[in-house]
What we know:
Layout: E1 2-7, H1 14-24, H2 28-35, E2 43-52, E3 55-64, H3 75-83, H4 89-110, H5 125-140, E4 145-148, E5 151-152, E6 157-160, E7 163-166, H6 170-175, E8 181-182, H7 193-202, E9 203-206, E10 214-222, E11 232-239, E12 246-256, H8 264-273, E13 278-285, E14 291-299, H9 304-314, E15 321-328, E16 331-339, E17 342-351, E18 354-360, H10 362-372, H11 376-387
Parallel strand pairs: 1-4, 4-9, 5-8
Antiparallel strand pairs: 1-11, 2-3, 6-7, 10-11, 12-14, 12-15, 13-14, 16-17, 17-18
Helix pairs in contact: 1-5, 1-7, 3-4, 4-5, 4-7, 8-9, 10-11
Amino acid sequence: MRTLYLDCFSGISGNMFLGALLDLGFPESHLRQELAKLPVNGYELIIKKVEKQGIAATYLDVKTGFFGQRRHRHLPDITAIIDGSDLPAAVKEDAKKVFLRLAEAEAKVHGTTVDKVHFHEVGAVDTIIDIVGTVLGLHWLGIGRVYTSKLRTGSGFVKCSHGRMPVPAPATAELLRGIAWEHGEIAKELVTPTGAALVAVFSAGSGGVPDGFISDTIGYGAGSWDLEIPNVVRAVLGEAAEAQAQAEYLVIEANIDDLNPQIFPHVMDRLFAVGARDVWLTPIIMKKGRSATRLSVLADSAAFPAAAAAILAETTTIGMRYYPVNRLEAERRTATVETPWGEVRVKVSAVKGQTVNAAPEYEDCRKLAAEHGLPLKIVWQKALSLAWPLYGRTDGGEEQ
């Protein structure tokens, strides 16, 4: 599986993460093209090569005008901006997961609800660009898993809208629950809430290089500070060993017989937003012949507390059961095929380097079908036929 390892010896922020992905080969032209689909304006995207203590890195900065002036925004405001774009559905969903995680951390720290959180520093357009851009880069590079080193947060105090806060700031510390971190020797804020939220959502593990990881490309994303150490995050791209494909997960279940069925789709969305790998519903018959629904959730241990809390908050159940399961995953990557109507991404899975399945990306096919006035099934079938040459290949075709 295509795997990214982030070496965060100088912390991580949103623009450092995105800069590192650009340094790995994520095209600047594609980033600008996709960000233009967001219904925002009044900003200038600056991308340049810099040197930090002798290390060449990519630096990204967002210069904002009136729209980007920092003001209060709520989660629904940011969700509306993302949903109002023509970005791929998967990119929208992942970006919203990051903002939801930010909102949950702020809500817990300030004793309020997710929808009432004032985002302050993280509600500005530059943070929207950093998060959406990072998600775009992860998708374009075909990254299936992200691992991180122990994060160095820095130390001392940082000025926030609520006053001077200890480093890591309370919301950042909340986001880093379950993630290995240390202060380090630098008396500055090195891990920002945006950087912490991205790691919290996408990291499959922290503390060191995963066993059997083989690297092939290295990129560096620069931060704004000039420090006595290189202020960069090192992004190492490579392949995870086959042993990494088997991991322990939890299945969480609850039998529910008194919830309005119209609420279940919302419950499923909430569970996916807090990190569930899969959610499904099964009709069942309970005692005394009562019809009910079994809600089942597949999640890793890090997502269990948030998933359990969401089930208790959003459904009528007063309890649930959970048990460990193992999941064996095929190696996954993304290739592209050129149809008569445009490019379609294809999700390719393999076992021991041998391709065993290829599935055209639904959203790409749907978009081309709409643009050219064609039945969706025609575009999908053509993309699938063009994917057949990928079978028998060990490289999965053109990397994206």
